[in-house]
Amino acid sequence: AAAAAAAAKLLAQISGADAAKDRGNAYFKDRRWEEAVECYEEALRGSARDKEFAAVLHTNISAALRRVEARERDAVKHAGLAIEANPRYAKAFFRRGVLHYDAGRWSQSFEDFRKAQQLEPGLRGLDQWLRRGRHAARQGRDRKNHYRELGLLCECEQDEVKRKFRQKARECHPDKVRDAPPAERSAAEARFKAVGEAYEVLGS
Predict the structure, then answer these.
(1) With the C-alpha atoms ordered 37, 155, 117, 72, is the resulting torsion angle positive or negative?
(2) How far is CA 177 from CA 164, 167, 170, 172, 174, in A?
(3) In this predicted model, what pLDDT tens digit does every residue of 51-109 receive, in sequence order?
């Protein structure tokens, strides 16, 4: 009787975790990132012993957090936890590679993309990112991260580029600090120039 009760409890936990993951996927599809994260975390609590399932959930959390402002570190952490749970899970390396790319860590990004390719050569979307990563890694420290300058992800649409440029240009316009000390004015001018340069590259 005790064994049957334990088995029933385990099945209920698995079923609950699957349902929470499905809800998370639905929220993710609707671009409700933080609600998706909550569901994936709920699923994690119900499936702690299943390492492969945990790797999928951590990877999903990482992908959702990438879309949430100021959650980059948490996104990278969850990608790392996914790799720790299942070192053979290609998508976890892929997700971490994308996060490294976002942050301008070009070499680390390319290394993760290559690892993902070794594990799963046909992984959807990987080839494009692998080319991006290879090109960026070759340029190294000389490469400017224009997307990060505008607070954008590199797969954004042109309308978003324009919107972010206007927002950033207003925020750091030198006229806002015309009465500030010279060092502060100089910093604002440099930032404004960098924002303009980023828009020239991305908005064309």
Answers:
(1) negative
(2) 21, 17, 12, 9, 6
(3) 999 999 999 999 999 999 899 999 999 999 999 999 999 999 999 999 999 999 999 99
Helix, strand or coil, per DSSP, at residue 154: coil
Q: Taking phi first (over 0 means left), then psi (-120 to 50 degrees means alpha), and beta for anything else, what does residue 105 get?
A: beta
Please state the φ and ψ torsions of residue 32, each to the nearest 5 degrees: -100, 75
Q: What is the C-alpha separation between 16 and 51, in angstroms, rounded? A: 17
Note the pTM of the prediction, 2 decimals.
Answer: 0.86
Angstrom distance (rounded) from CA 164 to CA 161: 5
DSSP-assigned letter for residue 178: T
Query: What's the sign of the alpha-carbon dihedral 83, 112, 106, 201?
Result: negative
Tokens 């702690």: give the residue: 48
Count the alpha carbons within 13 Å of 75 in the hemisphere toward its beta carbon: 23
How confident is the model over 98-155, as pLDDT tens digits?
999 999 999 999 999 999 999 999 999 999 999 999 999 999 888 898 888 888 888 8
Task: Walk me through the domains of the chain, giving residue ranges and CATH numbers.
Answer: 2-143 (1.25.40.10), 145-204 (1.10.287.110)
Give how far the C-alpha of residue 105 lies from the chain's centroid of Cα atoms, to the nearest Å. Answer: 13
